[in-house]
Please model this.
Amino acid sequence: MNLHYNWTLKDAIFTKDKGKVFSCFACGGGSTMGYKLAGFDVIGCNEIDPKMMEAYITNHKPQYSYLEPIQTFKDRGDLPKELYNLDILDGSPPCSSFSMAGNREKDWGKEKKFREGQSEQVLDTLFFDFIDLAKKLQPKVVVAENVKGLLMGSAQKYVNEIRKAFEKAGYICQYWLLDASKMGVPQRRERVFFICLRKDLAEPFLYRKNLFDYVPKLELNFNEKQIPFKEIIDLNDNKITLSKLDGELWDKRKIGDTDLSDISIRERNILSRFNAKFIYQNKVSNTITAGEQCVLFDLKRNRNNNEILECGTYPKDYNFLKLKTEYVVGMSVPPIMTAKISNEIYKQWLSKLTN
Model:
């Protein structure tokens, strides 16, 4: 599987011969494109944001699309039979309640929404609604992506509850903390992936993980050469300028500064702009967020659109409609990251189940 972070939808070859996938919390289709690149047929999606759904349909033209909260989608009685014969059910339940950049415990249990136009939901229960859907549809494999913060501190209790819920739904659940920068993605992005195999299919793959657990063996050891920012920097587009304050801080930067707050504290004794991370050309780019604020250390600007696309391994001809590039890419699983993971799931599990 030859994948590169600079690619286009029009030139991509989607073989659709590895199995069928349905994607929940689909956003702009980052994971969808990853499955397609790996050879899967993504037959549909569920998404709550009408603008995201419009972009998804424009770019992916799914056979089935459901614009509604997962709480109502999971209870539908009119789902097509194809959804009860999936190879993979995919989902990235909204995760800001667990993010290390958010309020964490202060937000747990509260109704929130990401942006105008979305319904308010209790974000930290959406994972369990997704598991309810898995219990109903019974796909062979379930893949759920979430933030690294889910494994830290008090949030660890949610991991235990997630595993118990998958167990009751008929799955053996394991999770991995994976770094996109070691998977051919020119961006530091650590994410947790829960990967679950249906119990009635698991016996050929079982091994003793420890004294108490037998789990289906799945090796996800990625250690590809990391891609520094200098390999993707676009010197033809330097139009994006910093705000007056950020520009003044940037002028006083020193090698070793990690973000603009280092300068703000040093020069003004004020803690601010800590989300404006510096990107050094000889290092891997920082994580793209929906509210992109990263600043180039060597050029007085933020990342431009081409750099965001390549850092996020999004296709260069993706139609964002009226959505901001950084918002869609920042909310998405990098396609190449999903492609690498799903390729291993196919090689180690699904191909053997088929045969």
